[in-house]
Amino acid sequence: MPKTEMTYIDAIRSGLDHLLKDHKDVVVYGQDVGAFGGAFKATLGLQEKYGTDRVFDTPISESAILGSAIGMAMQGLRPIVEVQFVDFITTAFHQILNNAGTTYYRTKIPVPMTVRAPCGGGFGGGPFHSEELENFFCHIPGIKVVYPAYPSDARGLLYSAVLDPNPVIFLENKFLYRRIKEFILPKGEAVPIGVAQIRRTGNDAVILTYGAMVHESLHAAEQISAEGFEVMVVDLRTLKPYDIDAILSAVAATNRVMVVHEAWKTGGFGAELAALVAEHAFHLLDAPIVRITAPDCPVPFSPELERVYRPSVEKISEALLDLINY
Amino acid sequence: MNSQATKKIKTNTSVNIWLRILKTMFLGRLTEERLVRLYHQGKIFGGVYTGIGQEAIGAVSAHIGTPDDLYAPAIRNVTVHLGRGTKVLDVFRQYLGRVTGPTRGRDGNVHYGEMDKGVFAMVSHMGAMLSVLVGGVMARRRLGKSTMGFAYIGDGASSTGDFHEALNFASVFDVPILFMIENNHYAYSTPKEFQYRCQSLVEKACGYGMEGLEVDGNDVIKLYDQIKIILEKIRKNNRPVLLVCDTMRMRGHGEHDDASYVPKELLLKYKEKDPIHLLKKHLLNNDFACEQDLKKLEKECLDEINQSYKKALSEPMPSPDDLLEGVYAED
Ligand SMILES: Cc1ncc(C[n+]2csc(CCOP(=O)(O)OP(=O)(O)O)c2C)c(N)n1
Ligand SMILES: [Mg+2]
């Protein structure tokens, strides 16, 4: 089978297309996802192909979008809903926390719903179009959270998310949508939820990361490779349930740990990872764990501010040298 | 000498306010036309969202309020800001992320508002500002002021839960607010038929036990007269009112969107009803102004805009060192 080059957003569209084709119980809906093809064109052409019954626009009613998806999922459909920006999911947060998160535990009725939500900044979106909210979801029992960094993972994890019997928050990174390309098969395979991927090997330190920061971390690792240090980069891919084994073996192989994410520091996912390592691998550490994250302030609009807000290659490589030379 | 100049210019009590409204609309239109150019020249980080074609609603309501009143404008309401006294210069600073701007570069484009002018700075989340305005008006009235509120919502935003909660809340607590839905036929790409199924959004008023009315949102003269009557009632009865204004979004949702999904005929129909054109025609046909006066007014506005955007471009961005300044208020 010949491989074709796909961007991250192409891969998501391709995944949705295959899911709609192969599974009659899949429906796709959200704001502007119909004829318009979505704010980021993830659903372009799908309404034309599968009809307005299966791919459709909704009013601006996030709570009803999420709530109805939960209801459909409880009745055996596999809804995939798009929230235009993850920032707007907050107006439906209680549906995720209270309905999606508890239904199976309370009633034994599965909720196979997938919520797609574009995240992240780096393009002047300001405080309400750039947020990274993954840890709000990771805190909720009963919810799975995935966050791919590559086209093949975006599509492969989408397959797994949609076929999973649980509610899955499928986080996408807007900065990667058109920047990251890969040659992939026309259909490809599912990528299992809960399995991390080593993106780069090395023994001097490990970076635990996900989403857009996988790419910044890889660049930083390349940079300091020129100085003779080899850094492992682990792309978590799934944040809940995260791959404990992969993380702990990476720590054992490197003894120095850095966590990088684009979300805020306090109570961020890096805090969870640092706690895990401290709990289970304290004896393996040669240096304190380092967290490179966004600072605790709203996402600023002005490019001068956003430049220092977002973790950068420079910041990561500088901190890596400090970590290695600790 | 042109015959216009020799015509006797008439006046009535409303002419001054009409002219002020016209000036605000000129400023809004020309500012946004400049922003569109700056966007396409790659000088603006992020997006540009204009209210071109919808200037009347904001301009009329901004000029009709008192200094104590409160406003919660939305995406299309540059004329609310300008009508309440925000400087064109500050609009450019805001879009250009300058430290001198109303949000000091921390936020961009439409997310600004100057509290000393009674204007809340919106967040993006549709409907979220409505209950904030309700609380603001309640607070000012407790302090003994005769404040009322002006709220602006899109047809799309009327589908949010926040819209419902805020209108019901305002009604239960007798909070005098004019809730204006600017029905511009689209919410991003979604036409109004996919947003609601009542005949008119005005029907929603009845569910909240408030009065609801419909107006032509592009005709300044009618809009002004109608809002004036409604406000007298609101202030007298201390009750909220829902006003549905028919208008049209004349450009894309933002400048990144060519809006090819909007039928050309619809745009043509509303081009005929351009609010600036209608008001100018009214003033000229009734000899309330002459051509030269209006040209002069427009030119003054354009000059201010040209100076302002150049000045804003020359001003500094915020310093990266100040990233964490102002996350918390200090005593
Ligand atoms: C809660 C929420 N969901 C989604 C969005 C994304 N969004 C921004 S503007 C817009 C359309 C708004 O339409 P309407 O309310 O009719 O206002 P208009 O743009 O027509 O003035 C959407 C969907 C948002 N800002 N807030
Ligand atoms: Mg609209």
Strand content of chain A: 15-25%
- Using DSSP, what is the number of strands of chain A? 14
Helix-strand makeup class of chain A: alpha/beta
Biggest sheet overview of chain B: 5 strands, parallel
What percent of the residues of chain A sit in helical stretches (DSSP H or I)? Answer: 25-40%
Kindly report the average pLDDT value of chain B: 96
| Structural Rg of chain B | 20 Å
Q: Provide a count of the helices of chain A.
A: 12
- What's the N-to-C terminus distance of chain B? 65 Å
Q: What is the second-level CATH architecture of the largest domain in chain A?
A: 3-Layer(aba) Sandwich
Individual helix count of chain B: 12
CATH topology tier name of the largest domain in chain A: Rossmann fold
For the largest beta sheet of chain A, what order do the strands appear in spatially? 3-2-4-5-7-6-12
CATH class group of chain B? Alpha Beta
CATH superfamily of chain B: Thiamin diphosphate (ThDP)-binding fold, Pyr/PP domains
Q: Report the CATH C-level class of the largest domain in chain A.
A: Alpha Beta
SSE map:
The complex is a heterodimer of chains A (326) and B (331).
Chain A: E1 4-7, H1 8-22, E2 26-30, H2 46-50, E3 55-57, H3 62-74, E4 78-82, H4 93-100, H5 103-107, E5 114-119, H6 134-138, E6 144-146, H7 151-163, E7 168-173, E8 181-184, E9 197-200, E10 205-209, H8 212-225, E11 231-235, E12 238-240, H9 244-254, E13 257-264, H10 269-281, E14 290-294, H11 303-309, H12 313-324
Parallel strand pairs in A: 2-3, 2-4, 4-5, 5-7, 6-7, 10-11, 10-13, 13-14
Antiparallel strand pairs in A: 1-8, 6-12, 9-11
Helix pairs in contact in A: 1-7, 3-4, 8-12, 9-10
Chain B: H1 3-6, H2 15-40, H3 55-64, E1 70-72, H4 78-83, H5 88-95, H6 128-142, E2 149-154, H7 161-172, E3 177-183, E4 186-187, E5 190-191, H8 204-207, E6 211-216, H9 220-237, E7 241-246, H10 264-272, H11 275-285, H12 291-314
Parallel strand pairs in B: 1-2, 2-3, 3-7, 6-7
Antiparallel strand pairs in B: 4-5
Helix pairs in contact in B: 2-3, 2-5, 2-11, 2-12, 3-9, 5-12, 6-7
The structure holds thiamine diphosphate (TPP) and magnesium ion (MG).
Magnesium ion (MG) is lined by residues 154-156, 184, 186-187 of chain B.
